[in-house]
Amino acid sequence: MADLEKLYEQFKAAAEAVSAQVYRVKDLKEAGALLSTLAEEGGAKKIAAASSPMVDKCLENAALKAEVKTEDLRKHAEEACIGLSELDMAVAEIGSLQQDCTDLNKRLVSMLPHTHVALVKTESLVPTLADAIAKIDANKDHIPGYMAFITGPSRTADIERVLTIGVHGPAELKIIFVDNPGGVSHE
Amino acid sequence: MSNCKNMRAKIHSALNDQNLRGALGRFADAYLGARAKAYQGRDFEKLRQTIADRKGSSAQRMEELAQQFKKNAEARGAKVFIARTAEEAKKYILDVALANQVELVVKSKSMASEEIHLNHYLAEHGITAAETDLGEWIIQLAGQRPSHMVMPAIHMTRQEVSEYFSKETNQNLSDDIPLLVQVARQELREKFLKAGMGISGANAAVAETGTIVIVTNEGNARLTTTLPPVHVALVGMEKLVEKFTDVGAVLECLPRSATGQHLTSYVTMITGPTPSNLPDGTIGPKEMHIVLMDNGRTKMKEDPLFSQALQCIRCASCLNVCPIFALVGGHVYGSVYTGGIGTILTAFFNDFDDAGELQNLCLGCERCKEVCPGKIDIPKLILELRNRVTAKKGMPASQKFLLNTVLPNRKLFHSMLKIGSKTQKPFVSDNKIRHLPLFLAGLTEGRSLPALADQPFRDQLYRLSKPKQPKAKVGFFGGCLVDFVYPELGKAANKVLNNMNMEMVYPLEQACCGVPAGHLGATEAHRRMAKQNIEAFEKAGVDYIVTVCPTCTASLKKEFVELLKDDPAWAKRAEDFAAKVYDFIHFVAKQTDNGKQLGLKPLGKESVTYHDSCHMRRNLGIYEEPRKLISEAGLELKEMQWPDRCCGFGGSYSIRYPELSQPILEAKLDDISSTGADILCTACPGCMMQIGGGLDKRNSNIKTKHVVELLAERLPD
């Protein structure tokens, strides 16, 4: 666990350095409450969520004023202020998240809305990019159809080299680490 | 010739473009810091060796890996087409678009598509292709070409961008950058949602899994490969790697070298078609095509020297550190691929003759070689291009006479220079030529030239003292600049050697080191000079061979061996010769415990700033020794910013392109002046000539000295 603490601190520093916001909660109950607060603060009217065990449980525990959509997401994610999805791995050294996003919904909610809220298990932290690559490589015979590494929000420096956040993808990336996703099926 | 004039005109206009100069200059400075920071804690040499090994071996198996990739990607449901030519690639992509009744295509950044002018081709067939990378879109709206591989619109200002965006959206937009970015987001989002097809490139294609890997910051590649129901990836065959883990090293280096990031915002890995919103309203697997394009790549693979260029990961760090690129930007290169590596890629993928003109822009400072994550010897490849152009087009007769007749013959060179030195008299004062008449004026613009020595070093040898019982015989290679311009350096070296109880021997049959010939593409002349020099020093029977010019050292120690390695009668002789060669400063440091055993007597309290000559620092890897010797001589060392940035001399470069050489010199002079040092010290007579001339022209009080002079001044006679 001490190792995980170190990895989390490292991740947080690296991710914040690339303009992501990093939160940490005990369980999905707290995650639901945090999502409610974030939605409130952001004045979100619509949330597009890519269904997954953690996402479903988080939504169950949230008290949201915003409308939540989990289907027909090409339309709804485009209109939504927040996109919610579950990520698979977190790379401590560089503050990157990794996701099997063969599921179209996972891609749409992390691309189209203004804000991407990413749920990730604290235990899924790995030290380096090489570790993440090695993990994927171990199962390369069944490599997912679409995989992504996400490091901070969308950015560009194409006009006069001035860093500007939020060009094509989300302008905000809020990462919620869940220490104990207990009660969630791991099947 | 028309190309050449054209290029000159482009250089002229780029140099006069203040926006471009400002943007490129600021970026060049910021880049170095960002890159260094990003690589902190990383073993760059190890990483780039991995890339060179993995990409190098993959390139050699390109055809086999293409077939393996095709098999694996097709097993996952993609269609893979291997296109031999640009025409085949374009035709295939057009057919896919027509079969799907596509009217609008969204594109994420792909240099390969630029290479084959795909947008233009699609437009001719009634299909609109919208670039979605912000920089590429700006360039597309402006009807221009990218000026940089990673930052296509680096040459444009926010005001220009706002004008193009205003025109495109029929609005009157301000030049606020976040606002302009939002406008682009909205405009392009609409296109993403409407487009019938997405075209992407790829940064890697993994043969063993059939996966393509795309690296972006904006997220446009994710949208391009997700929203439209058809995806075509256009992938150059050099992107093929054998194993999935090979992607690791590329991902470690590409963002760090390109933009100083640890990782880009997005890395996308796609294996076969994935679910998409289809035109009939359902969700189902999309249509995915991968075009593996040859277009000159297999030809490059077959070339024993140029095949290493396939190790390029398109990070553009060679552009970012190039002093010439920082001055003129990418448009001068007149092609899709810009800068040093661009010159090489252009030769194989586009037009050999175009590249022939471009290689002249290289200053030979070797900075690109030092930072290249693919470990490509870019300067060497550029030189080889020059050789091939010369072989193809021949050399002017006057140049031939100079190289084949004058340079190897010291006596003739000498008497020609003597005639020349007489005619220079009217313009000489204080041993400096300050201005020359007519067409020669360019030579003395921004710098004075040193006057030729009244008496060359070889004619002053009889006056040199020798130790009585020397412990070693050291052969001194003068080189043209010491022999004819700076004989005092030879005398200083003799004094230092005497104090080391070593005898200087100067074989009179020695010739030029051959570099000027080699750099003009005259390999044969260079080889002849190698033999002449080896023979001369063999006859002298010396223990060591030294020179105070790092360019000569590099030629003697490395290039002679390379030039003669296939000649059974000479290969061994060249190696034995090379084993004895040292740069003088390195030699002294090594023999005297960094000067400690020389018994240097400090003189006054002067301060020194040291300029690392390109060849000394990067080719020979010597930079600690001269600094230690300077400290040992009791002088205060004040480091300038970027001490290893080129001074702009580059041998005959400063004569061929004074308009490029001079601004580089000016920047160097500014860095030197800012230190407040009393002496500019370097270990290269070429740099001395360039920088000393520049300081003189500015009426600066800073003295220019070679390290050997600082040492000799502090030794008893």
Helix content of chain B: 40-55%
**Unreliable sequence segments of chain A:** none
**Radius of gyration of chain B, taken over Cα atoms and rounded to an integer in Å:** 28 Å
Strand arrangement within the widest β-sheet of chain A reads: 1-12-7-4-2-3
Q: Largest chain-chain contact?
A: A-B, 47 and 66 residues
- Characterize the largest beta sheet of chain A: strand count, sense, and whether it forms a barrel: 6 strands, parallel
Instruction: Output the helix-strand order of chain A.
Output: HEHEHEHEEEHEEHEEEE
Report the strand count of chain B: 23
CATH homologous superfamily placement of the largest domain in chain B: NagB/RpiA/CoA transferase-like
Query: Helix tally of chain B?
Result: 34
Concise structural overview:
With 187 residues, chain A is of the alpha/beta class. Helices cover 34% and strands 29% of the residues of chain A.
Task: Give the topology, please.
The complex is a heterodimer of chains A (187) and B (717).
Chain A: H1 2-17, E1 21-27, H2 28-41, E2 46-49, H3 53-60, E3 67-69, H4 73-79, E4 82-86, E5 89-91, E6 96-100, H5 104-111, E7 115-121, E8 125-126, H6 129-138, E9 146-150, E10 155-156, E11 164-165, E12 172-180
Parallel strand pairs in A: 1-12, 2-3, 2-4, 4-7, 5-8, 7-12
Antiparallel strand pairs in A: 5-6, 6-9, 10-11
Helix pairs in contact in A: 2-3, 4-5
Chain B: H1 2-15, H2 18-38, H3 44-60, H4 62-75, E1 79-83, H5 86-99, E2 104-107, H6 111-115, H7 118-124, E3 128-131, H8 134-142, H9 158-169, H10 177-194, E4 197-200, E5 204-206, E6 211-216, H11 220-224, E7 230-236, E8 240-241, H12 246-259, E9 266-271, E10 275-277, E11 283-285, E12 287-293, H13 297-302, H14 317-320, H15 323-328, H16 339-349, H17 352-358, H18 367-371, H19 378-393, H20 397-406, H21 410-423, E13 428-429, E14 432-433, E15 449-450, E16 472-476, H22 479-484, H23 487-499, E17 502-505, H24 515-519, H25 523-540, E18 544-547, H26 550-564, H27 571-579, E19 581-583, H28 584-591, E20 607-611, H29 614-619, H30 624-632, E21 636-637, H31 653-656, H32 658-675, E22 679-682, H33 685-697, E23 703-706, H34 707-713
Parallel strand pairs in B: 1-12, 2-3, 2-4, 4-7, 5-8, 7-12, 16-17, 16-18, 18-19, 20-21, 20-22, 22-23
Antiparallel strand pairs in B: 5-6, 6-9, 10-11, 13-14, 14-15
